[in-house]
Specification:
The protein is mainly α and 259 residues long. The chain has helices at residues 2-16, 21-33, 37-50, 55-67, 71-83, 90-102, 106-119, 124-136, 140-153, 158-170, 174-187, 192-204, 208-221, 226-238, 242-255. Helices cover 78% and strands 0% of the residues.
Length: 259
């Protein structure tokens, strides 16, 4: 309700002062908070026509574009935001790295996130995303260090806990990986990805029946994920349940017919 009142006040002010970039940017920010992404985008673009380095407009516009999946354009504006600041904050630098990461720019992503950690070594999201970048290039040991740092800084982050589990598994430390997966599920029992990965680990460790139970949980939480059904099919094969394995593979093909 308060955001609605704020919108009304800002619309009136912006109508009287259409060339005020700050008013346009704040109207855009408040519209975003009310769920009006298109209106927010329009007013932020207007603000940037008046002031190309208006930080509030840049921040809101990047958020809107990123939410729409327009990572390339979001990256352009985030780059302007970072470069126009004398001292960009860790969150801004991390987002710059994340946008590069989503576009497949591995080196630029790592550089941006490392800059964020220099600015604020205690910023947990930077450590988590750097871990993900390093994992992509096969640097599992260093990636694990940053995942564990993120987890120490933010113990309730089940994503960091799961990431650490994936890396421990990649390093052959399956017992520790299992413990981390279970800890991640303690933090969020509705995380289908964690249930699936724990199930796969258990199957690989020779505990097929237990693994299938976690895979079934993952399938119930996210029935449209073909990877879960593929893992289920392989697990049932190891248990000799060939008919049920076939059903799982057929379900996977139904969801994703591509090889």
């Amino acid at each position: 309700e308060k955001f609605g009142e704020a919108c009304a006040v800002l619309r009136t002010a912006a109508g009287k002062n259409p060339d005020d970039a700050d008013l346009q940017s704040w109207l855009g920010a408040v519209l975003f908070r009310t769920g009006d992404g298109d209106g927010a985008e329009a007013h932020c673009r207007k603000a940037l026509e008046l002031d190309p380095v208006n930080a509030n407009a840049l921040h809101t516009l990047v958020t809107v574009l990123n939410g729409k999946g327009q990572a390339s354009e979001a990256l352009q504006y985030q780059t302007v935001l970072v470069n126009s600041s004398d001292a960009p904050c860790a969150a801004s630098l991390t987002l710059l790295g994340v946008l590069h990461y989503r576009l497949g720019h591995a080196a630029e992503a790592e550089e941006g996130i490392r800059r964020a950690i220099v600015v604020d070594p205690s910023f947990a999201p930077a450590h988590k995303f750097l871990s993900a970048c390093l994992a992509l290039s096969g640097r599992f040991g260093e990636a694990l260090e940053h995942a564990e740092t993120a987890l120490r800084l933010r113990p309730g982050d089940n994503g960091a806990c799961r990431l650490a589990a994936v890396l421990l598994d990649a390093l052959g430390r399956s017992s520790e990986a299992e413990s981390h997966y279970r800890a991640a599920l303690d933090l969020d029992g509705t995380d289908a990805v964690t249930s699936r990965e724990l199930g796969k680990l258990l199957v690989k460790s020779g505990r097929g029946a237990e693994g299938v139970r976690y895979l079934e949980t993952a399938a119930s939480l996210d029935p449209d994920e073909p990877d879960t059904w593929i893992a289920m099919g392989k697990a049932r094969q190891t248990l000799g349940e060939l008919g049920r394995a076939e059903d799982s593979f057929r379900k996977a093909v139904e969801l994703d017919p591509t090889p």
